[in-house]
Amino acid sequence: MKKIAAAATTLGLAASGAWAGQIEREGDTSDILFEDGKNYFEVTASAVDPKISGTVGGVIGSGSIQQSYKQLSFGFKTELNDKWTLALVGNSPVGADVFYPGGTPHPFSGGNATVESRALTGYAKYQATDRVSIYGGLRVQSLRGDVNLPPLFAGYTLAVNNDYQLGYVLGAAYEIPDIALRVAATYESEIEHEFTDGAGTPFDVTIPQAFTLNFQTGVAANTLVFGSARWREWTEFQIAPVDFGTTIGFPGAAIAFGTSDIWTFELGVGRKFNENWSGAFSIGYEEDQDDVVGNLQGFDGFISYGLAVKYETETYEFTTGIRYIDFGNTLTTTIGGNFQDNDAVAVGMKLGIKF
Q1: What is the pTM of this model?
Q2: Which of 122, 114, 116 is nearest to 140 (CA)?
């Protein structure tokens, strides 16, 4: 039953399942603490191809504004003894790559923005009883970005270099191994990055706190149900350099901002086919908040469908997956701005080695 659980929980990583609210690209990474094997190493690669476009007044098209991107992450876990487990995970938790094609009459034509991050999280897990464990750790996160806005915003530009800040993670889990039951709750602190705008004035960007509840349980022979609920306080997120508001004549205006706190849900089923092969199917959901979003986003909520298959031996495992994401329609802060009928396809592969 534990092999089915591993296939199921791998699905989200292998199929890049965490396209969530605002600029989130990867969610909770604490699952590595529960992988089989005394020593375990994994590397995950994924690619996401979004198609997000809109119009102004139903006539002037934007073209596809979200660029395709690739993700690479790694993790290592070691069991020191029957009580203590350590892990290290490197990933890109948030990001954005927005480009409005030039040469069109759209008011954002030629505008673009990028956000890049890297994070390194160290975990420690203590097995308090046969069924209860607690875990936590520290996260070092970098954040950088570039913005080039069109004449509508006076051609405003901004470039900020990597800022490194520290956050923390806390969690607890309850397990019944015989039936592959596990319920784990994980809290991730906010991380506040400090930058300086083009005029030399300081401003902050907060990557907000998050809470994730993961669960899985066996429901029949060789069959497992799994899911998650993740909340993030995106109302605390904004990119608002002081000189931006001054340039456009609206002091305090933000280039990008969160309008609602976001819940993201996933529910799936995993099945073991034989000693080596297993697979999983999942559905993801994020509610349409009916928000008017910024012009660098272009969607509000989604529903997704994911498939993954896994081949496993005593020493290694290989998982591949695909996910289709159907984005919710939304209006933007540009008068008459409307994005609808947009989607994305994500594919991923994960190699895990036990030694």
Answers
A1: 0.94
A2: 122
